[in-house]
Amino acid sequence: MKYEIIGSNLQMVRCMLSPDESIYAEAGSMVNMSGNVQMTSQMKGGILSGLKRVVTGESFFLTRFSPASLSGFVAFAGNITGKIFPVQIAPGKDFIAQKEAFLCCEEGVTLDVALTKKIRAGLFGGGGFILQRLTGQGMVFLHCCGDIIELSLKEGEVMKVQTGLVVGFEETVQYDIALAGGITTVLFGGEGLFVTTLTGPGKVILQSMDVAKLAATLVPYLPKPAPAPAVTK
Q1: CB within 8 A of 233, min separation 6: which ones?
Q2: pTM of the model
Q3: Structural domains in the chain, sorted by start
Q4: Nearest residue to 55 via CA among 120, 106, 129, 137
């Protein structure tokens, strides 16, 4: 499958499909498509896989896009300001991603649930206990908030990351959390109580912006409801 990532920010990916190719995407992520591309809602992987997606906070159904006759195209975009990152999935090279990062994938890719191996990482790691495991064969497109940071960790190399900024990592990377520092740092450092620790070897994808923090910064600027009128007797 050929594809093109368009734009510098607020990016979208346009996938060119031949008649024997198809692509699956989250509901509502399609931007535009050629007239010969057909859409069908399917439970990719069956009912069990659909239920697993619901557990991760995603939709029960995925939308399948495929051209009816000649080659066609379909374009997708995320719902927040950010960029799109392609990941090639191959047998024996699984990729673990935050549940909100998935945008679309080729038909040969399977989406499954990946539980964090340690309770504390699930409780305080910013992503909950449940992540998404991407297996099979094909291309996956992940959507990041802000800019993309790609790192390749060596064997035993440790990277500390602010919680909420980890988009995904290869299965060989170990995921955990640690205290941000001493008591003074925790109370007055402004970086939160915990940081995520990633231990190599393997590839790590980070995003420069945390969606939750972005939403929190906008709250003071949102319109406030008018006070209810006083009731007079």
Answers
A1: none
A2: 0.80
A3: 2-214 (3.60.160.10)
A4: 129
